[in-house]
Design a protein that fits this description.
391 residues, 8-stranded mixed β-sheet, 5-stranded mixed β-sheet, 12 helices, binds magnesium ion
Length: 391
């Protein structure tokens, strides 16, 4: 018999109330992009994916409602709670907002720690069965010493030192009472505030994945971590358009002088349509007709770079990377070769790639079939991307 594990659940309070624009971000850090996604959104989505988290509320800085709404579009998270200038005030505001329907356990977390391992949450919640609070900690590997006036001072015994991370977990009633009674500015974190209030705070094993992102170099390391998690995916696309349109003939985003144009609802760029479908296919996100229905008059005569850029943005918004695209254009005429480099450069610009990541090929069908008879042009495309695994 396998014993049924007790299901322990907590409400997460994510503090994202910073207003500082540290050099290198150009905006409050919690809204800076990591892998194409705001840092705060990473933190929320990570916790939302855990079965141990029953609800998530975010504390934001006054006046950042717009940034919050943009960063969290499409994410099922409650209305933001407006915080204060100092972190302690923000946490207190968050706890106050939860107090009407108090959860049993609350996790107080920073938006600047986007990768929270499920095992850390499990350890924290287990510790709350015996203690008022629990925090994840890491040991200190380096020698630690005091310094004064740029000179090395005495060495501190590191065996008794730990680095304290978040999320910090508490029995809600206990930490809410501690915050209500605390003086402003007493401590730097909630565990310190809890200890000052006489609460018992246990330590559990933390995780390097919880490292706080503070400087641009931290973001660069986090980008590396994200990239390591991506998997390679391939998509293919195919499209056909018939000759007979008014022109001009546009293939691969390049205008080509020719005796006739292609018919179609949009500008009939057969190569960009096939390529758009290849990208959507790699992302397993439907096809061009689903995203841009021919029945919708908005797309009548539309320039097809809009479709391609839409597919690009879908992938980038999920933290994906486009590695390579390859297009084959199938027709007897016009000749594609003279336009190959222009098409590669045009598509590379549309997808924000280097020219070396874009291939254009052309072939005929030896005068066989509709392309052989010159009735239209067909195109095939293959896209290789890296993206997080989908459920
Ligand atoms: Mg088409």
């Amino acid at each position: 018999m396998i014993a049924q594990a007790t299901v322990r659940k907590a409400t997460a309070l994510i503090v994202a109330a910073g207003t500082g624009e540290r050099a290198g971000f150009g905006q409050p850090k919690q809204y800076a992009l990591l892998g194409g996604k705001p840092l705060l959104r990473h933190a929320v989505e990570r916790l939302a994916a855990l079965s141990s988290i029953e609800a998530i509320r975010v504390v934001i800085a006054p006046g950042q409602q717009g940034e919050f709404a943009a960063a969290m579009a499409g994410v099922d998270v409650g209305a933001p709670i407006t915080g204060a200038v100092a972190r302690q005030g923000s946490v207190r505001a968050g706890l106050a907002a939860l107090a009407d329907a108090p959860p049993r356990y609350v996790l107080i977390h920073d938006a600047a720690r986007p990768f929270c391992p499920a095992a850390v949450i499990d350890r924290l919640l287990l510790a709350l069965e015996a203690h008022d609070g629990a925090v994840p900690v890491l040991t200190v590997a380096d020698t630690v010493a005091r310094s004064a006036d740029f000179m090395l001072g005495e060495t501190v015994d590191r065996r008794n030192l730990v680095r304290v991370q978040t999320p910090q977990a508490f029995r809600f009633d206990a930490i809410w009472a501690a915050h209500r009674n605390a003086r402003v500015g007493d401590v730097t974190d909630d565990a310190g505030l809890a200890r000052a209030a006489g609460l018992s705070v246990a330590i559990v094993e933390g995780d390097e994945a919880l490292a706080k992102l503070t400087y641009p170099a931290d973001f660069a390391r986090a980008e590396e971590r994200l990239r390591a998690r991506l998997v390679t995916r391939t998509g293919m696309g195919f499209d056909v358009h018939a000759f007979g349109g008014p022109g001009p003939l546009v293939i691969g985003g390049v205008r080509i002088d020719h005796t006739q144009g292609l018919t179609g609802h949009s500008d009939a760029d057969v190569a960009l349509h096939a390529l758009t479908d290849a990208l959507l296919g790699a992302a397993a996100d439907g096809d061009i007709g689903a995203h841009f229905p021919p029945s919708d008059d908005r797309w009548r005569g539309a320039a097809s770079h809009l479709f391609l850029e839409h597919a690009r943005d879908l992938i980038l918004a999920r933290g994906g990377i486009i590695d390579h695209v390859d297009v084959t254009i199938i027709c007897e005429a016009p000749k594609i070769g003279p336009h190959r480099d222009a098409m590669r450069a045009t598509i590379a610009a549309m997808l924000r790639l280097r020219t070396g990541q874009v291939s254009i090929k052309a072939t005929t069908t030896e005068r066989l079939g509709f392309t052989g008879r010159g009735e239209g042009i067909a195109a095939q495309a293959v896209a290789t991307i890296r993206m997080e695994e989908l459920p």
